């Protein structure tokens, strides 16, 4: 039996995304002993390293669980697999790729010592009701690109482990202390964030709502993310109608010390300081030149005016 391919799975619902992010936060605060998640950027597939408990038949053995979440998790059970390569590390007679029906509880549960019942070299798919939070993990970096569902996935390299760890950390900090005026829209793609922007009170953009799209490169934060407004973009002398933003910290002045939160604060500050709502003078020419899908990071920006 083989695991579902990325192309055959439906995207996670908002409820499922919220639930899985909650489980991830709980895992990071209180990880269960003997388990380790592999951080990547696919929320819909977790890969968890399992260390056999001391004093059991599986002591000093290491396995991997693959958990594929359905669209309507947790109302629908995920599929739990022991990938074939996981069994190369252990010595047992089981068929090396078995799908287990997970029991829906407050947390996913797994216990190797109970999940396998050896009787004449046969395995049974028993899942005990024990509390164990499963960590978020995804495909290995080498094959993440094949599983990504974003239309532009083919043009982006998968996130490095450093980038994944950094984004997981930023996401947790955001959830604990989100920047005022911004809301992260939960999806199952760690490499692309969509952020709702609310115009600050007392400014030209008060009561207006826009959306930012943030695409993270392979080597974030050493390399700046691509940040654009999803059209319709706000009318601003430094924002083009295609959503591209002329802001130095997104390009030449980027620093690895910056975060998504600091980017958002800078953009809101730029909006709030504007005294006029209008497009850049070269808007039509620039947008025409970008019709082939050119990234704003390919533009040679001239930062000649920091006052609007």
Automatic annotation (TrEMBL):
Q: Which residues form the UBC core domain?
A: 15-171, 162-308
Q: Name the InterPro entries on file.
A: Ub_conjugating_enzyme, UBC, UBQ-conjugating_AS, UBQ-conjugating_enzyme/RWD
Stretches that traverse the bilayer: none
UniProt keywords, alphabetically: ATP-binding, Nucleotide-binding, Transferase, Ubl conjugation pathway
| UniProt-listed PROSITE patterns | UBC_1 (PS00183), UBC_2 (PS50127)
Q: Which residues form the active site?
A: 246 (glycyl thioester intermediate)
Q: Could you tell me the EC number(s) of this protein?
A: 2.3.2.23
Identify the Pfam families for this entry: UQ_con (PF00179)
**Gene3D superfamilies given for it?**
Ubiquitin Conjugating Enzyme (3.10.110.10)
Q: Name one GO molecular function term.
A: ubiquitin conjugating enzyme activity
CDD domains the record matches: UBCc_UBE2W (cd23808), UBCc_UEV (cd00195)
What family name appears in the similarity comment?
Belongs to the ubiquitin-conjugating enzyme family.
This molecule's function is given as: Accepts the ubiquitin from the E1 complex and catalyzes its covalent attachment to other proteins.
Q: Under which name does UniProt file this protein?
A: E2 ubiquitin-conjugating enzyme
């Amino acid at each position: 039996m083989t695991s579902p391919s990325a192309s055959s799975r439906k995207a996670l619902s908002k409820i499922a995304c919220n639930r899985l992010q909650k489980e991830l936060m709980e895992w990071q605060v209180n990880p269960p002993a003997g388990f380790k998640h592999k951080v990547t950027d696919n929320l819909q597939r977790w890969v968890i390293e399992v260390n056999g408990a001391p004093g059991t038949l599986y002591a000093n053995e290491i396995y991997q669980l693959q958990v594929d979440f359905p669209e309507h998790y947790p109302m629908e059970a995920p599929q739990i697999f022991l990938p074939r390569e996981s069994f190369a590390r252990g010595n047992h007679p089981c068929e090396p790729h078995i799908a287990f029906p997970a029991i829906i509880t407050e947390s996913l549960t797994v216990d190797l010592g109970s999940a396998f019942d050896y009787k004449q070299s046969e395995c049974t798919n028993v899942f005990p009701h024990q509390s164990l939070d499963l960590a978020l993990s995804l495909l290995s970096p080498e094959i993440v690109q094949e599983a990504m569902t974003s239309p532009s996935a083919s043009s982006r390299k998968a996130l490095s482990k450093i980038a994944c760890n950094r984004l997981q950390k930023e996401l947790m900090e955001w959830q604990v202390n989100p920047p005022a005026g911004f809301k992260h829209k939960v999806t199952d793609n760690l490499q692309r964030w969509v952020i709702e922007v609310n115009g600050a009170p007392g400014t030209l953009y008060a009561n207006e709502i826009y959306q930012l799209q943030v695409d993270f490169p392979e080597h974030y934060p050493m390399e700046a993310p691509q940040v654009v407004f999803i059209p319709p973009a706000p009318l601003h002398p430094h924002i083009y109608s295609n959503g591209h933003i002329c802001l130095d910290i997104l390009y030449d002045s980027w620093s690895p010390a910056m975060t998504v939160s600091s980017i958002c604060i800078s953009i809101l500050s730029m909006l709030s300081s504007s005294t006029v709502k209008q497009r850049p003078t070269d808007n039509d020419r620039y947008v025409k030149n970008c019709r082939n899908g050119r990234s704003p990071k390919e533009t040679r920006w001239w930062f000649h005016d920091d006052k609007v």
